Amino acid sequence: MPPAKKRPRAYDHLRTRTAVLAQYAHVRDAVAALTPQQLAAPTRLGDWTVRDLVAHIAQGLGSVSRDLALPEPPGPKPATTLLEWPPAVAAVVRDPEAPAPADHPDLLALYGEVKAAFLADVPSSGTGDRLLPTRVGSMRLTDYLVTRTVELIVHTDDLNEALGLEIPYDRQALAACTRLLADTLADRAPGGSVEVRVPPFAVVQCIGGPKHTRGTPPNVVETSPLTWIRLATGRTEWARALEEAEVSASGERADLAALLPLLR
Question: CATH number of the domain at 175-259, out of 2.40.50.100, 3.30.1450.10, 3.30.1050.40, 3.40.50.880?
Answer without folding.
Answer: 3.30.1050.40
